[in-house]
């Protein structure tokens, strides 16, 4: 470290931080990257080829392993030891933190859908929320580059909610499963299309990463690099340039500024020695996750920045959004007792149902703004610790019921857009600190009537599709009961949103904070809206685009 003369300091090693480091190091700039969690090497630690029956509780999740015994997340989860957060009265918000090298890219669903022009300019269409300070056409070429680098499988569907990729960018998608084809036929009767999901899983080899051969769930971590995570791609690629150094177990406390209020580096806690250290840098990039980057900024008060760093607008911590979530599933009579065959695929759904309602919105036919999509669960999944449905009896008769039911269930997971509201935000708790002496985040969260009407519409649509397949669906739950808790979908965004004016946003379109020209944010905190699509592809695309812009500013002497 004593001989490593870095120009840029990046906080966070997930989608945004790793892509920023990759882009800048490939352009010849030395980068020092700090990660709050421990080091992690999926090639050595990923439990591939392990079956549920080899694990405690048949691999089921527990308080230490929320997503199952083999989940790649090591020290993180909804609760992290020694690192609490608090909720305001009446709030039940869940904050997921990975706390490992690679961040959430080690366990995410890898769904990789482009935002469309509808998504970037939502306010212009319906008056809600905020527009992004650029158009789809501005970012489309960067989506192409990111998709090709990451390795996205899928097809150009021609649907208005799924902008096309350039020819040759997408890798071939896996073959649809039998239940998915049945779902597609059922949805078609309602005028709704089911199409291949775009997913960050290689179906063809790329660089030194192998193509997926459908051997293990992606959430276990992928030692062959087929399922995208920064620990098998962007980080080792950046290291190979000789321009990247990484420090793990580095919990950033605050961003340091000089007497003029200009950023000079960061102060962090070395979690191994529990000592406070300071590093300098010409440019600081925060990519620690939306709520963590906002916490760092709010904890970085200074005489020049009394409300927290980059917070002259008062918008740091505001505009917090998560995706909506709900689920509805049933047993399909036609699928009972069907023949057994290999239906593994790349873990996630091969087909999904994208949002189809843009024209209905334009005609004023819907009572809620924006939209949602359905992710599908189906197929011959690896048996776990539970058995679905109402099984009765014992012995041979009971076993036959279980065999007949195997592979006969389908489920729809709704993921929808939330709009910002004044009741949903994060701030710094005035009295609670973590083990490292850093004041913790305090959350306020509330779904609005707009999200509840969306969920109601989604449940009714899912019921129609299921009933078209012969399923028996009882009375639907209310939207209030069906909707996920805030943060539960792990798509929180908006806490440091970008915009066209310093009066109502934290950064400009390049992620550059209005108040400090050498401080940038490159995680989902900069999102002005939270479209129904997984945010990771757009985080990476923005980070590549904005880091390229930083490199040009460096060359021109502006930074």
Structure summary, number of beta strands: 16
By helix and strand content, what is the structural category? Answer: alpha/beta
Distance between termini?
A: 23 Å
| CATH domain fold name of one domain | FAD/NAD(P)-binding domain
Largest sheet: 5 strands, parallel
Strand percentage: 15-25%
Model regions low in confidence, pLDDT < 50 over at least 5 residues: none
CATH class of one domain: Alpha Beta
> Any idea what the shape is?
globular
Radius of gyration using CA atoms only: 23 Å
Helix content: 10-25%
Looking at CATH, the homologous superfamily of one domain is FAD/NAD(P)-binding domain
Widest sheet: strand ordering: 5-2-1-9-16
Tally of individual helices? 13
Question: Order of helices and strands, N to C?
Answer: EHEHEHHHHEHEEEEEHEEHEHEEEHHEH
Query: Based on the structure given, which CATH architecture of one domain is correct?
Result: 3-Layer(bba) Sandwich
Mean pLDDT over the residues: 95
């Amino acid at each position: 470290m004593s001989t490593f003369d870095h120009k840029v300091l990046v906080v966070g090693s997930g989608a945004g931080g790793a892509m920023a480091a990759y882009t800048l190091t490939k352009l010849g700039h030395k980068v020092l990257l700090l990660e709050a969690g421990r080091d992690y090497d999926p090639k050595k630690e990923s439990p591939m080829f392990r079956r549920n029956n080899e694990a405690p509780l048949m691999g089921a999740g527990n308080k230490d392993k929320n997503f199952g015994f083999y989940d790649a997340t090591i020290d993180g989860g909804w609760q992290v030891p020694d690192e609490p957060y608090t909720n305001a009265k009446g709030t039940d918000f869940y904050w997921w933190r990975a706390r490992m090298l690679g961040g959430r890219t080690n366990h995410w669903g890898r769904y990789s859908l482009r935002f469309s022009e509808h998504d970037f300019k939502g306010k212009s269409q319906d008056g809600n929320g905020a527009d992004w300070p650029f158009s789809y056409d501005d970012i489309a070429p960067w989506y192409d580059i990111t998709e090709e680098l990451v390795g996205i499988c899928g097809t150009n569907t021609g649907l208005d909610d799924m902008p096309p990729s350039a020819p040759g960018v997408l890798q071939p998608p896996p073959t649809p499963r039998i239940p998915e084809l049945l779902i597609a036929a059922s949805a078609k009767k309602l005028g709704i299309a089911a199409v291949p999901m775009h997913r960050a899983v290689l179906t063809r080899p790329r660089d030194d990463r192998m193509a997926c051969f459908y051997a293990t769930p992606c959430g276990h971590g992928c030692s062959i690099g087929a399922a995208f995570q920064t620990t098998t791609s962007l980080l080792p690629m950046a290291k190979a340039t000789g321009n990247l150094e990484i420090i793990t177990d580095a919990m950033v406390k605050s961003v340091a500024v000089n007497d003029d209020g200009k950023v000079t580096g960061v102060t962090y806690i070395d979690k191994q020695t529990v000592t406070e250290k300071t590093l300098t840098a010409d440019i600081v990039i925060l990519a620690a996750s939306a709520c963590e980057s906002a916490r760092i900024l709010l904890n970085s008060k200074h005489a020049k920045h009394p409300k927290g760093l980059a917070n002259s607008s008062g918008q740091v911590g505001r505009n917090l959004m998560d995706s909506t979530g709900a689920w509805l599933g049933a047993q399909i009579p036609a699928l009972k007792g069907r023949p057994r065959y290999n239906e593994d695929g790349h873990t996630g759904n091969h087909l999904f149902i994208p949002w189809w309602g843009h024209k209905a919105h334009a005609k004023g036919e819907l009572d809620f703004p924006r939209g949602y999509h359905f992710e599908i669960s189906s197929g011959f999944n690896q048996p776990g610790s539970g058995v679905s449905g109402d099984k009765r009896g014992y012995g041979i008769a009971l076993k036959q019921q279980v065999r007949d039911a195997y592979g006969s269930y389908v489920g729809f997971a709704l993921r929808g857009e939330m709009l910002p509201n004044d009741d949903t935000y994060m701030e710094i708790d005035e009295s609670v600190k973590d083990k490292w002496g850093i004041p913790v985040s305090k959350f306020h969260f509330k779904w609005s009537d707009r999200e509840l009407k969306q969920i109601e519409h989604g449940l009714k649509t899912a019921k129609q599709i299921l009933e078209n397949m012969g399923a028996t669906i009882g009375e639907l739950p209310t939207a209030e009961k069906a909707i996920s808790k805030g943060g539960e979908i792990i798509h929180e965004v908006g806490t440091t949103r970008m915009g066209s004016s310093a009066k109502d946003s934290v950064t400009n379109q390049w992620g550059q904070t209005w108040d400090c020209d050498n401080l940038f944010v490159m995680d989902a905190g900069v999102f002005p809206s939270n479209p129904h699509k997984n945010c990771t592809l757009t985080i990476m695309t923005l980070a590549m685009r904005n880091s390229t812009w930083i490199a040009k500013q460096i060359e021109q002497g502006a930074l």
